[in-house]
Amino acid sequence: MSRSALRNRPLLRTAYTQEMAMLNTPAKRRSVLAIVVLAALLPFVVTDDLLLVLTLGMIAAVGAIGLNLVTGYAGQVSLGHAFFIGLGAYTGAVLGGDPEGPVLGYGLPMWIWLPAAGVVAALAGLLVGPLAVRLRGLYLAIVTLGLVFLGDHIFREAREITGGPGVGRRGPELTLFGIDFSQDGEVLTRSQLQFLLALVFLVVFAVLARNITRSGVGRAFGAVRDRDVAAAVIGVDLTRTKLLAFSMSSFFAGVSGALYYAVVGVFEPSAFSLLLSVQYLAMVLIGGVATISGSIMGALFIASLGRISGEIAHWLPFVSQSSGGSGLLSVFQLEAILYGLLIIGFLIFEPRGLFGIWLRVRNYWKGWPFSY
Question: What three-state secondary structure class fits 18?
């Protein structure tokens, strides 16, 4: 085909690799570049307290992407994400913790404890995979839910590792390539350094997950999700595919947990309760099931929900700022109510989540001024 014809039809595909490219249109390439550039400039125009919220949201997005891989793409309902996040958090804290501290720590560098947290969580995910071959739907959800209560008991009783309830322990040291991300630098503040670190990790894991979903493994995930019996008939190995789904999801969760609580600083066993699994499930449902972009949108939105609830409490006289206040509701109860309302609202009115809303807006402007 002549170059003039290709120039007049810029979206024409002449090879399968062009169709399967990660950014297969000029608009996608330009928009992704603009988003990354704006995100890199954001630390210089936003206050430190808001930067912390966005930093934790981006780190949580890594875990949400992992949950979307197993639940959204592979169709395996998991309510045990909090267990894998806690496993990664404590693995990172033990390997990177202070050797002279009151709890177990080895003082290893970040380039060791961060991937190790993902590997340990992935190994735990491999134990769930065989169960997923025999169970599905509600039964699988109940089994993974049991992991949360099992982990809660283990984390509370292993005081030499976790510090125990009400005491907790410090996260690992955030030092990479000679840069201490827990202290203010000569040019950048601590919040700015941590934001840029989280941004880099989010980009790396988002690209990794996007490539997984575009590969043969990702297509096998979709086949198992749509109909596992039919997938087995066409040659998909159900055991291998479900093992990969849970191990990949757990790896993302472990890395996210280790990095998240390294930024938070101090954490205790009660942080990894069923509520944490519900929060990550909300990130996936509100952001958009089976979309990487939706996972990021949902995580940032849920991470900001506490701040949004605080702002709403200023305008509602019956909402108190503390749990022991005189109001009808506390700001924490308001946040929990918003979780439920948002999940119900998106499932009923916009099942594709925030990503679905974005698609509606994009398609409207692509067809404007025509309505079809």
Answer: helix
CA distance 191 to 48: 6
From CA 338, how far away is CA 26, in angstroms rounded?
Answer: 38
Instruction: Give the tokens for residue 119.
Output: 């590997």
- 196 SS3 class: helix
The whole-angstrom separation of Cα 246 and Cα 130 is 10
Tokens at residue 194, please? Answer: 């941590």
Residue 27 has pLDDT above 90, yes or no: no
Tokens of 72: 């959204």
Cβ atoms < 10 Å from Cβ of 66: 34
**Whole-number Å distance between alpha carbons of 53 and 50:** 5
CA 167, CA 215: separation in Å to the nearest integer? Answer: 45
Count Cβ atoms below 10 Å from residue 125 Cβ, excluding itself: 30
This prediction's pTM: 0.92
Tokens of 313: 């409490």
CA distance 118 to 54: 22
pLDDT digits (tens, 9 = 90+) for 262-275: 999 999 999 999 98
Nearest to 241 by CA among 83, 76, 79: 76
